[in-house]
Design brief:
With 291 residues, this protein is α/β, with parallel strands linked by helices. Helices cover 42% and strands 24% of the residues. The protein has two domains: 167 residues, HAD superfamily/HAD-like (Rossmann fold), CATH 3.40.50.1000; 117 residues, 3-Layer(aba) Sandwich (Calcium-transporting ATPase, cytoplasmic domain N), CATH 3.40.1110. α4 packs across α5. The structure holds adenosine-5'-diphosphate (ADP) and magnesium ion (MG). It comes from Limimaricola soesokkakensis.
Length: 291
């Protein structure tokens, strides 16, 4: 009877777009007490757009956006794509940027026409010794709306705060509510600014937030959460692979990177996060039948 109910459960899950890559995943899911989500691309659509550009006095909007776009053209981060798209939409001429370097978990630095640029979060500018006091209130106002502030410094001077919004997925709120109704804790893990993460978590009804997590820190974040009980982690990115492997149950979005899928026990082939709720519900039902 045991293998039969597991087979039936696995088959039912497959029709809902839930693929169990390992036979014991159905059982492990039943023991989970917390579901932790990666924010970008999992709880949010992962299609950010530039919404605001707040300049300090004495700087030109088009010039600043052209410089930032020129730098971000060499980035692979979705924030960069949003800024480049905005610069292109305005028909701005972007010069060639030189010596562009990604600073992990922080942003970019590089040079354009003899000027030194820094583009990224508050940590990036602060660590470079730049006074960001006049940008902080602008950044905070954007973060409180759930937008990611992108700060800009030119030749060591703070110049502007851009804001990029990545809308939450329409289905995310219902998925979080369903998990909480099942008595599970819900957490969010993100590299994003704490204030931005808290605003999005409040909007979604998420009770636990790990923010400003560096790419190599996601694994440690999962280990920290596991101290409270078994954790399922839902993610999609290259950076998510170690966390997927270390969680009690790793759940990868089917739309995610190959390395994420290979690190997970469960794959949501439909790309719906609601399928994670289905997976948990099915595992509970099957395991109750077996006991
Ligand atoms: P996440 O994918 O969760 O945003 P990352 O480690 O990729 O995590 O980035 C962490 C933070 O570093 C971002 O939220 C952003 O503030 C900043 N950042 C990273 N890359 C860029 C970039 N190309 N342009 C601007 N900011 C960036
Ligand atoms: Mg990410």
């Amino acid at each position: 009877a045991v293998p039969t109910s597991i087979m039936v459960g696995t088959g039912r899950a497959a029709t809902l777009g839930v693929l169990f890559r390992r036979g014991d995943a159905l059982q492990a899911l039943d023991g989970v007490r917390m579901v932790a989500f990666d924010k970008t691309g999992t709880l949010t659509e992962g299609r950010p757009a530039l919404t605001d550009l707040d300049l300090l006095p004495g700087h030109d909007e088009a010039e600043t956006l052209a410089l930032v776009g020129a730098l971000e053209r060499q980035s692979e981060h979705p924030l960069g794509a949003a800024i480049v798209a905005a610069a292109q939409a305005r028909g701005l001429q972007m010069e060639a940027a030189e010596a562009v370097e990604a600073v992990p978990g922080r942003g970019l630095r590089g040079r354009i026409g003899g000027r030194a640029l820094l583009v990224g979060n508050a940590r990036l500018l602060s660590e470079a010794g730049i006074d960001i006091a006049r940008l902080e209130p602008l950044a905070r106002a954007q973060a409180e709306k759930g937008r990611t502030p992108v700060l800009v410094a030119i030749d060591g001077v703070a110049v502007a705060a851009l804001a990029v919004a990545d809308p939450v997925r329409v289905e995310a709120r219902a998925a979080v509510a369903a998990l909480r109704d099942m008595g599970l804790e819900v957490a969010m893990i993100t590299g994003d600014t704490r204030a931005t993460a808290m605003a999005i978590a409040a909007d979604l009804g998420i009770d636990h937030v790990e923010a400003e997590v560096l790419p190599e820190g996601k694994l440690a974040a999962i280990e920290g959460l596991r101290a409270r009980g078994p954790v399922a982690f839902v993610g999609d990115g290259i950076n998510d692979a170690p966390a997927l492997a270390s969680a009690d149950v790793g759940i990868a979005m089917g739309s995610g990177t190959e390395v994420a899928i290979e690190s997970a026990e469960v794959v949501l082939s439909s790309g719906r996060i609601g399928a994670a709720v289905d997976a948990l519900a099915i595992s509970r039902k099957v395991m109750r039948n077996i006991r």
